[in-house]
C-alpha cells in the first residue's frame, strides 16, 4: 500500500506529510512517489489545508532514487511539478541527510528548513549519471557557481552552506523554533493570497519544466541504461569503489 509510506497529521490547517520508509532511508521508489503524489493531491483539493509541511521519519529525509526499484523518470518529474504547482505553500522540514533525488524534492518546496547537523550531497556523478531532472527546480533557485562545484564533485556539504547557496531558506538547531513564525504567518495569510503569491514565485521554475522536462527526462533514462551507470550502481550496492575511481 502506498499510503503506508506517507504519514499524515494535521494541526490548525497545516497538513504534515512524512516520508515514512526509514529502513530504506526514504529512498524514492515507484510506490513512495505515487503515495506522496496522492497525498499532495488530497491536500490541494482540501479547503481546510492552508499549507503542507513535508518531512520524514528516521535520520534521512531522502537518500535519492532506490537503485533496486527506482521510479520512472517521468513519474518523478510529475511529482516535482506537482509540488511546485500545488496551490498551497509546501514547507520542507529536514532533520537528517539528503542525497541526490531527495534534493529535487527539497528544491521543489517553497520554503526549506533543516537542522544544523543535516548534510547534503549530489551523488549522481559518482555512480555515472547526472543530476538531470532535479535540475528543473534547482537551477532557477540555487547559486550556479555552488551547483557547479557540488554537482561535479559529489562533495557533502552542511546546512549552513545549503542556506548560503539558496538550497535552504534557513537552518537552525531547533526546527520547532525555526518553523514557528513561518507556520504562524501561513495560517494568518488568506488562501487566495497564498495561491496567487506562490504563482508569482514559481513562474520561472515552471518555465524550466515547460522548456526542459522532456529533454532532461530522456537524458536521465539514457544515462541509467549505460555500462558506466551499471558499474556505478553495482559498486554502490556492493559498497566498493567503482572501476574508474583512482
TrEMBL record:
Organism: Streptomyces vulcanius
UniProt cross-references to Gene3D superfamilies, sorted A to Z: 2-enoyl-CoA Hydratase, Chain A, domain 1, Lyase 2-enoyl-coa Hydratase, Chain A, domain 2
Family: Belongs to the enoyl-CoA hydratase/isomerase family.
Domain of life (superkingdom): Bacteria
InterPro entries in alphabetical order: ClpP/crotonase-like_dom_sf (IPR029045), Enoyl-CoA_hydra/iso (IPR001753), Enoyl-CoA_hydra_C (IPR014748), Enoyl-CoA_Hydratase/Isomerase (IPR051683)
Name assigned to this protein: Enoyl-CoA hydratase family protein
Amino acid at each position: 500500500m502506498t499510503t503506508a509510506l506517507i504519514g499524515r497529521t494535521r494541526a490548525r490547517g497545516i497538513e504534515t506529510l512524512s516520508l515514512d520508509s526509514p529502513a530504506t532511508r526514504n529512498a524514492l521508489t515507484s510506490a513512495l512517489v505515487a503515495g506522496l503524489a496522492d497525498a499532495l493531491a488530497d491536500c490541494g483539493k482540501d479547503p481546510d489545508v492552508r499549507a503542507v509541511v513535508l518531512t520524514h521519519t528516521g535520520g534521512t529525509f531522502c537518500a535519492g532514487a532506490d537503485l533496486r526499484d527506482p521510479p520512472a523518470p517521468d513519474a518523478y518529474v510529475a511529482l516535482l511539478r506537482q509540488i511546485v504547482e500545488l496551490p498551497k505553500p509546501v514547507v520542507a522540514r529536514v532533520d537528517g541527510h539528503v542525497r541526490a533525488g531527495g534534493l529535487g524534492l527539497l528544491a521543489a518546496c517553497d520554503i526549506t528548513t533543516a537542522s544544523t547537523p543535516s548534510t547534503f550531497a549530489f551523488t549522481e556523478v559518482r555512480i555515472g549519471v547526472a543530476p538531470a531532472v532535479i535540475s528543473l527546480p534547482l537551477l532557477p533557485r540555487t547559486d550556479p557557481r555552488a551547483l557547479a562545484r557540488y554537482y561535479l564533485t559529489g562533495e557533502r556539504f552542511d546546512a549552513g552552506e545549503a542556506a548560503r547557496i539558496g538550497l535552504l531558506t534557513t537552518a537552525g538547531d531547533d526546527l520547532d523554533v525555526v518553523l514557528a513564525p513561518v507556520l504562524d504567518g501561513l495560517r494568518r495569510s488568506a488562501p487566495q493570497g497564498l495561491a496567487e503569491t506562490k504563482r508569482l514565485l514559481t513562474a520561472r521554475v515552471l518555465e524550466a519544466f515547460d522548456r526542459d522536462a522532456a529533454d532532461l527526462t530522456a537524458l536521465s533514462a539514457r544515462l541509467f541504461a549505460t555500462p558506466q551507470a551499471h558499474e556505478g550502481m553495482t559498486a554502490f550496492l556492493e559498497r566498493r569503489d567503482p572501476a574508474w575511481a583512482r
